[in-house]
UniProtKB/TrEMBL annotation, chains A, B:
One of its GO terms (biological process) is 3,4-dihydroxybenzoate biosynthetic process. It comes from Brevibacterium sandarakinum. The lineage of its organism: Bacteria, Bacillati, Actinomycetota, Actinomycetes, Micrococcales. This is 3-dehydroshikimate dehydratase. It catalyses: 3-dehydroshikimate = 3,4-dihydroxybenzoate + H2O. GO terms for molecular function: 3-dehydroshikimate dehydratase activity; dioxygenase activity; metal ion binding. Pfam families: AP_endonuc_2.
Length: 661, 661
């Protein structure tokens, strides 16, 4: 599949955009006119650069407001078109995007448009240019793809074809069945964008909220399958207007986009065969394609979270809290002296100590001293206590890793003793490490490396709550979807004292893997830098939720061991009472144990939180019945308590520095 | 007018919200239930705090999903209501907001709802509670204010009244004429919010995009006038759900909101008289009100920009550039040794030198050594070259200053010699200084302080382009509207290499004052701090546009004096040609002088840019005919050129520090 991307998707100068597209691995780009106009490089220099980089210039765009106008205006428009054709010759581009008229069309008669398209075709022919005519969703008279196709068909000119853009088609909910009527060779270009399900005017939706395939709400696999079935053999190009992407890192956005194309390609590669023999175009094609679709190694949903790795420069505080929660110390890693294992039943936490910012050797989770992304950015190891990585149980770890690499994820560099379990992993968009652990029913093999002890407790990691930088949120959704076959549930907004927290759960179908992704409302300038590839972890804590059989027992143990529970206000329990009409003794028992409570039609949810160490805290939970949620109504209580704790700490620090000063 | 604000408008804990409301000067607050539930303070403690702060607790909200349900459910709902009534007694609040049923209503029969409201009223009566029933715009069966009023009227219960919320009413475009049917004493509460004109689902619009009155697109003066005419005498309260406000500084948002209420109050105070004598409620009231509306000193639109003040720690570079642009050095201020005046016709630039972060005495524009806002935040003077303030020509500077103070703007502290012209000013939301200069036809009096010289050039400040922090954008619009009677034109998005720049022009009707406000796409963590009250100036340059009679002459002078023009690419001129079909000689003349060009049906716009010093650059412009714009199509060219310059500088710096290291 010939992959391409419109330069308007990316930030930076035209030169930076071309370099980023080439480095990511696209086959070509669409040149967006505005990018050329503001560039100091001549069209010839741009063409040279593309040649040098080994990418093709697939399309020049956009040409606007040509058709449906009176004769005098049309003549002017032809003159304008001719200057573009000359420019395209200098760039070496042979296809131009013609958008249906938005501003100046006055003639509703299709016959006029057909005739004008034909005349444009004649002019284009003398320059060797092809016209890809596209119906904009907000076009004045032509706004549906099949209308544009009818016009192109009627024009019946070898230089006039159509351009199909998933945004303009899917945003209008148009019936897709007529795509099948279009012969592949009359589709002169194909543009793909996904979008979240928003109810807003289509122009704003298009200009600000498009995302890459797999990051929105649409079924682009179905869309591309329909295009493939026409016999279309041209570029599959991303045209995504998105405020975040336009201000993001150029290289990173390019990689994110290419990942979306590779994922989409693979999602249909197996169901669509290459054309058999020399089937004539007249025969019904069936599911075959000229797109040269490449599959990816298959991945099944993960079976569970094998372990979570925490890094810390405050080993005492962290392990004390884990002890209070009933975790048992198992041992140090046999070849990595700063790495410990703690277990609570099947909940496995690897603790790797960092001292003065120096990470100390890899553990099962793959701790490494430094990492560098493809763009050459190196990130220094950081101090603090933070969630470093997650080990996912997959059915075929080797294939998962291979797939990840083909999806342009960066491998975590890792030192490994020759007799250690081979674990490989990649960096997630937030800089955390994702490891692929071969699923096995018995105790994982790597646990031997710590001298495993038996643990009777029935307990496991229920979910891991990750903080995401807001500008890489869509990228994260695609990352977990494409690499791990997780699903994105609808997002929610949770009120906190410092704004709304956007929360969206990535999960496996059976719920054995659940990861709420949270976007903190305010990017703090003083945010902790680090955790891998150039990401910024915002000042929003992450947490590991551990499921247990008896929350009251867990709370009693924790209390007896002196756990610093996150405080729950009296007002909360009074409100709980008015919401759920609980037995007074039960309510009292909850309150005495700092336990929060939620209920739905399927079951109940009991949980308590610890205080935060660095940027990590724990949640202990007990699910009763088939409750599937995460206690969302209680999240504001937690956020407010954490806000108060932070404010107290800030005040104390200010006072202390005042006393010292 | 009794001013109030819902705690949900503000960030922080409940205690912080109450303190911020009191400090800003509100008379009361609405307690949002969620804020209480997550608070560690008991209802009694909250009531005590409010008493101590001298603010009333005007409303408890919201109570949801009561009416239109079957008998069993209604009984449960009454029990739930009773727990709230008890809680309200502890808080000392006598009015609760009842939202029309969104989730559980099954009965469409108004009679059922009326009966249930009446029964709720009986229960409320035994607790001394009043019910303010509000139609939510997305209510299941009740979504219009007049429907809610019909139900309240039919219930005919002394404890049942209605709550009117401008958002729920104006967002649905409901006919407002029936407001006049509601007797003021049956309006139990009034909530105000403004909103931008967005086309999106009303729930998202309401939950994320409400703004304070004067910051959106609605005519709230008309709305409040209608309410006032009913005889309503209760609180006028802000209920604004806005993502930025919820994560902003609590005190600052509170002040922003109160400013909106004061402005709104004053806007109708003169047209509505207080009730004369003891007019009975039965008589048609006419334009009279029980709201006790306080006017503000009137302000007319400013007549022009008297001067712009720039601060710099690179005096040589800045004044050299001004010299190249044809500015003449006039003199130093007689009592402020670091302050100079430069003129180009009537374009006046005050240059105040700062050395090592120490500002050095006030000038005409009011430079002062330090400033402190009401919240006690002090801002250290900063290095760099930046736009410090603007002097506006107003018809009555004393009254403008008085109005500004009543609108809660912070006065710029200022040292002044006893014989200097008295100039007073306030801080704008972006931290720049706004001075009110008495309009006079002759040369301004303060110029004498520099030993004024005559200048033959016909030139003036055409516009000033300000960068705004994105989270204080709405605040800035209200600030300039309410203090200076400027108007906000529709906003535009301008593409730049690092994202879309939102640009909106604040201007006076005759165009003598024009200020494009720009929101840079990305808040840079390494942004220059300072410029007054705790604001962050983003790394987006500001500029002063100077109008001249002959741009080619100005460019020739600048060229001969060695000006560092911002480069304009060849591609731009080729595109210009294809857009405007210009005479080749003219096009060449433009290009040779680095001049950009735009045209509309009214006239032409010729302009060139200088390079940036610190965060400031200049634009020289010539308007031909009645062109009213700002060359918006050329802005991307400028932004791209500035982006390239920055990238070059960064690369040079990196190289230099590499050589040093």
């Amino acid at each position: 599949m010939h992959t391409s991307i419109a330069t308007v998707c990316l930030s930076g100068t035209l030169e930076e955009k071309l370099r980023a597209a080439a480095r990511a691995g696209y086959d070509g780009v669409e040149i967006f006119e505005q990018d050329l106009v503001v560039s100091p490089d001549s069209p010839e220099a741009i063409a040279d650069l593309a040649r040098e980089l080994g990418i093709s210039l697939d399309l020049y765009q956009p040409f606007r407001d040509l058709e449906g106008v009176d004769k005098a205006q049309f003549q002017k428009n032809l003159t304008r078109a001719e200057t573009k054709f000359r420019l395209m010759a200098r760039l070496g581009i042979d296809t131009i995007l013609l958008c249906s008229n938005v501003g100046t069309a006055t003639m509703t008669d299709d016959g006029v448009v057909v005739e004008q398209l034909r005349r444009l075709g004649d002019l284009a022919d003398s320059y060797g240019v092809n016209i890809a005519y596209e119906a904009l969703a907000w076009g004045r008279f032509v706004s549906e793809y099949d209308h544009a196709w009818d016009l192109v068909k009627a024009a019946d000119h070898p230089r006039i074809g159509t351009c199909l853009d998933s945004f303009h088609i899917l945003s209008r909910n148009t019936d897709l069945s007529r795509i099948a009527e279009i012969p592949g060779e009359k589709i002169f270009f194909l543009q793909l964008a996904d979008a979240p399900a928003l109810t807003m005017d289509v122009l704003s939706w298009s200009r600000h909220h498009r995302v890459f395939p797999g990051e929105g709400a649409w079924d682009l696999s179905d869309f591309l399958t329909r295009i493939a079935a026409t016999g279309y053999a041209g570029p599959v190009s991303l045209e995504v207007f998105n405020d975040s992407f336009r201000q993001g890192d150029t290289n990173r956005t390019a990689v994110d986009g290419l990942r979306s194309l590779r994922w989409l390609e693979a999602s249909i590669a197996d169901t669509i065969a290459a054309p058999t023999g020399s089937a004539s175009a007249a025969e019904p094609a069936g599911p075959s394609t000229a797109l040269d679709l490449q599959p990816l190694p298959e991945v099944e949903e993960p079976r569970g979270i094998n372990y979570v790795e925490l890094s810390t420069d405050d080993l005492g505080a962290l392990t004390r809290q884990m002890h209070q929660l009933g975790f048992q110390f198992i041992g140090f890693h046999r070849s990595k002296p700063h790495v410990q294992l703690w277990l609570r039943g099947e909940a496995r936490i690897i603790v790797s100590e960092v001292t003065d910012g120096v990470g100390t050797g890899a553990d099962a989770g793959g701790t490494s001293s430094t990492s560098a992304d493809e763009a050459g950015t190196t990130s220094a190891p950081v101090n603090g206590t933070f969630l470093r990585g997650i080990g996912f149980e997959v059915t075929d770890s080797r294939s998962a890793m291979e797939r990840a690499a083909l999806l342009h994820a960066d491998e975590v560099p890792r030192d490994q003793a020759h007799n250690d379990e081979v674990l490989r992993g990649v960096f997630a968009p937030d800089g955390s490490e994702v490891f692929f652990h071969q699923f096995e029913k018995a105790t994982p093999a790597w646990i031997q490396e710590f001298g495993h002890d038996h643990d009777e407790q029935v307990s496991h990691i229920d979910h891991v709550n990750l903080a995401q930088p807001s500008n890489h949120y869509d990228e994260a959704v695609l990352f977990y979807t494409s690499l791990l076959a997780l699903h994105a549930e609808p997002s929610q907004d949770v009120p906190s004292p410092s704004g709304l927290v956007r929360s969206q759960v990535m999960s496996s179908t059976d719920g054995s893997v659940r990861m709420p992704l949270n976007v903190s409302p305010q990017p703090h300038a003083e945010a902790v830098a680090g955790r891998g590839i150039g990401s910024v972890v915002e000042a929003y804590p992450e947490h590991v939720a551990v499921a247990c059989e008896d929350i009251f027992h867990a709370a009693a143990t924790a209390l007896s061991r002196g756990l610093d529970f996150l405080p729950v206000p009296q007002n909360y329990y009074e409100d709980l009472d008015s919401r759920f009409d609980l037995a007074p003794e039960f309510l009292q028992q909850l309150q005495e144990n700092h336990i929060l409570y939620d209920r739905d039609e399927h079951g109940q949810f009991l949980h308590f939180y610890t205080s935060t160490i660095g940027s990590v805290f724990f949640e202990m939970i007990e699910r009763r019945g088939d409750y599937r949620g995460f206690g969302a109504p209680d999240a504001p209580v937690r956020l407010a308590a954490q806000h108060r704790k932070n404010a107290q700490l800030s005040a104390q620090n200010a006072q202390m520095s005042g006393q010292q000063g």
